[in-house]
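Reading a protein record of the kind used here takes only a little practice. An example makes this concrete, so a full record is given next.
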Amino acid sequence: MKLEKFFINSNNTIYESMKAIDKSGSKCLIVIDNNHKLKGTISDGDLRRSIIDGKKITTKISNIYNKNPKYVYFDKKNKKLIKDIFLKDYLDLLPVLNDKKQVIDIIKIDDIFNDKNTAKKLKIKLPVVIMAGGFGKRLKPFTDILPKPLIPINNVPVIDHIIENFNNNGVNKFIISLNYKSKIMRAYFEEMKKNIEIEFVEEKKPLGTIGSLSLLEKKIPKSFFLTNCDVLIDYNYEEILNSHLFNKNKITIVACSKSFQVPYGNCKIDSDGNLLNIEEKPNYKVLINTGMYVIDKEIIKFIPKNTKFDINNLIKILKDKKIKIGVFPISYQNWLDVGQWNEYKKTIDIFNEKIK
């Protein structure tokens, strides 16, 4: 294991730290000085919160990182102590120091627990609504035969991966909204033997990306997770929920940061059509809606019954009424979209890489 990929300097920027986290495959970096002495740690959550607070991605992390990190000394470490630290403080990695407080090793949670998901299993006592009734037109011809939620990733349907991710975060109740090829979906789940509760709600006609929530008002508690059936989010769902509750949002949209480079020169002009300058192949950074949300039950009253209704329609109504909507940014690395063939193929490659 190359330790350098987990190190960052306090003079680095938010953007540089985000790139380093993506490259490391971890959700945390160790902040060191030029002599490899421990200064602190910075997590993807720290970076995300700084962006929400309005800091620019060019801001240095010197006032963002955690200056009171957990650590162990090389000559005093033992497995019980380390395990207790991981379980109590919910860490992703732990620095190991010598007597000069230099970082000489790193312990990852995988090194301590054989099953990372078991070690970090959470208790989210909320249901998850999975929107699984769409036609999946972007995945034709597969969806001419089978519904989109059954598209396989390493011989396992994508909806099983979604359920497993939530179940590993402590969720055991799922409500699945059906329409297109609903009999096939029901038949598939009848064959499953899992220690989870699954309930179906069937649309009599297509109700759009969020219209079927109007059928669920009596089936869900105060808050719930909502996810599309073609997205996989690798993240701590409890942190998403806590952010939703702490900020008193009525909807929290899970979004991921992504860069797009325009392959052409961008001509900037003034109001009279005169050229100001040409920006060669500009790069734009945007936050993409991943298709996962935390929603408060009271929002359902704004969704018309038995009417096709999409998430953008709901967002517009809530914005007009000045109802609080939050965004929870995650890294592009933590989001997989299998709703179209080019992204599906990338997902297969990523899963194959993990197996190697």
